[in-house]
User: Fold these one by one.
Assistant:
Number 1:
Amino acid sequence: MDLFEKRVKNLGPLGMYAERADGYFMFPKLEGEISNKMVFRGKERLIWSLNNYLGLANHPEVRKVDGEAAQRWGLAYPMGARMMSGQTDYHEQLERELASFVKKPAAYLFNFGYQGMLSVIDSMLDRNDVVVYDSEAHACIIDGLRLHMGKRFVYPHNNIENLRKGLERATRLTNQTGGGIMVITEGVYGMTGDLGKIDEIVKLKKEFDFRLLIDDAHGFGTMGPTGAGTDEHFGVQDQVDMYFGTFAKAIAGIGGFVASTAPVIDFLKHNMRSQIFAKSLPMPMVIGALKRLELIRTQPELRTKLWTIVDALQSGLKKAGFDIGPSGSPVTPVMLNGTIPEATMITLDLRENYNIFCSIVTYPVVPKGIILIRLIPTADHNLEDVEYTINAFKEVRQKLDEGKYASEQIADITNL
Ligand SMILES: Cc1ncc(COP(=O)(O)O)c(C=O)c1O
């Protein structure tokens, strides 16, 4: 069969909805300056979908430095991979500053968090090593594990008893193979906002010999007294062996990093295929990341503002009787009971009638019958946004309870 024919015949689990969903539910275009209000399909909407936690994307100092760096260096410099011709003092400076911020001896940059995670897993592990990981691990961890030739054991999300069983099995196995064990968890789980139980996981180090890697994409910049991450929040930074962060969220840029001991970072630097065989991070992003990191360190009020909004939103939703699950981070899920068509109608109603733009998740990402509306509060939001949204959600819940989103009503809402 012709490969092209085969592929376009079945567009995949998301592609199959492309005709109906593209441009609205998938690939929506948000226009204008990144902030709490942006334009979607020609109308201003209140946006709860961006991981611009600290509002750095449009911070005037960030915009200034980004512009100046692009002017001075262009977007091409440096050319080539770090190892060949793409090394600069600024890349090294950023690594030193990131390492010191997350309290690790050394760090190394990635061009994308996703590729970085793949490459860390790939280079750290060989066929004799065993991985024990959380069942809700991000796609970059799962895809990294596809490259792993040895055994892996998954434990149900945050189930420490099962993790212990996985570690027992892994220990028996590595005693035979002579390999090592890596445990991988996230700091903050991005869909539900609950925290990886890093405090409990590190306690297992007393019983088992393993190294802990945490993906703290959502925790970096937002969690802990200085924003250094979820391990800082739990007070266990010294027990986390490898810390992964991305620039895609609180830093509001692109790229990422891993921090660990100096010898391990030196090993990664010489072995991580995603960095050896790919072009170095462009200079404006490096200079821009240095600026953003400086602001995270010197303007704690950005984090205070974020948490003011988080607390108002989460306590307001709870007070109004909403189930927001076990979130311990800014990520705020609102759980409703309903069908997939009802979820579609809620999205339409929120966007078109309330001008609220947020992401809605249904089965199979969450159990059947659950509608998860994910809100991402940021330092760019204000308390009026919070109040407005909670009131809108109360109305939406009422309509859902009255069956107004059931299929026979669809025409009324879509007739906008
Ligand atoms: C938990 C987690 N890990 C890793 C990544 C990938 O990071 P990046 O966007 O820098 O590739 C993301 C998404 O951005 C994420 O949410």
Number 2:
Amino acid sequence: MALLSSLPSGWLAYAIAGILIAVIVRLLYRVRTDPLSHVPNAGLLAPISRLAWAFPHEYRGTITLDLPKLHDKLGPLVRIGPTEVSFYSLDAYDVIHKAGSKFEKDPRVYGGFVQDGHPALFSITDPGEHARRRRLMGQVYNRSKVPLLEELMLHHITHWTRCIARSPQAVDLPVSCRALEADIISDFSFGTTVGAIGAWANGGELAMVAKNDELASWMPVITNLPGLWEKLESLQTCLATITGYQPALWRGLGDFVEWSHNSFNTLTKSKGEDAAINPTSGFPTLAGTLTRSGLPALTALAEAKENMGPGTDTTSASLAHVLWALAHNASFQDELYRDLKRVGFSTDMTTLEGIPRMRACVKEGVRWAGAAAAMLPRVVPQGGVELHGMFLPEGTILTSSPIWYLRDATAFPNPDEFNPYRWMTPDATELRQDSLRDKYYIPFSKGANVCIGNQ
Ligand code: HEM
């Protein structure tokens, strides 16, 4: 204090102003000379920190809606962070997501999905390990296996439709579809259900399901501010130890951990072939099949747990959208009903695939719902890459969302409209060929990480 008071008056103000100017000049110099300075910026502060532009848009949940508007103005490449570039270009998508691509998943984001320290197919970033795991999982996901799942699906669909028929009031579609998919996928993965349909039919959404969804909305915090998230976790652990009170989010997540461990133990207690088999359907379970194939128990458990995310939110959102759209397109619904009646309401997969109106309805529903509304960040490999005349060095994060291409007006005129006829011939008797439309139809992404559940 004595030193400061002995300095000439106004000195402190000059010193602060000087430091500020030096910081700004340094930042401007860095921004102008860094290797991504030629890429248009999403916002003034985007090159300085991803917390300045990307994080607030992720936190509000609007990033996949806001970026296409910026791409319209700024072109196919837009910088959204110091080392991160968003791209809206199918040509670039093909380079980055082609089979055998060297652009690995961004560990900052995919690491946030790892369960108990055991990466599963969705969160594995190493391409070699990913390819080995994918081969193993093909045992239950390949197209040839899908008809074997018919009984399992019908069992839960029947339960669900009966509950809807008995419901005294209007049904909340997203919640009820979520319950249906949660039971199907938990049964498929563990050989037993989380009991979501029962809970929903009794008037409540199952906390295990609702809180896993809520966790997804915290992903921007988990991946951008991992230190803060860890502190929140420790705080709630302390709170629970001292007071016995646990916030609803952690209670729901804890319920799911307990349920999955118990279900996994029950499944793997049975020996030999039985360990892999679902008692209801006779279909091999995911967890049992992976354990039987030599995957360590905790990794097989992580795979089954992680499957609950990508397997249920996408399918339930798509189903809810299709049902809503059918309710608002009465004539199409009537025609589809007649087609299904003609085949005796068969549930055989090949028969259903043979009905053009059914295929058009599902394809348009999946397109229109755009359920995988996430950005899929990848790391530029050694040597960098040139895209749209711009060089992007090794380590740059390149990111895009498959849903942008599904709502692209070039390939899908009036993209916001649910229009199954865009897939059909004018007389609506057959599916119509359209290579541009099919090129843009990438709801399951492409290449090595194409959705394993797409069948
Ligand atoms: C309409 C339904 C679905 C849509 C739109 C969809 C979409 C996607 C997309 C876009 C990806 C790529 C993600 C990335 O690269 O990060 C993906 C991956 C994945 N999906 Fe799906 N999905 C659907 C249904 C399912 C189902 C039913 C399951 C499981 C039963 C599933 C399990 C997975 C898994 C495990 C991955 C990771 C694949 C890998 O990295 O190799 N999905 N999905």
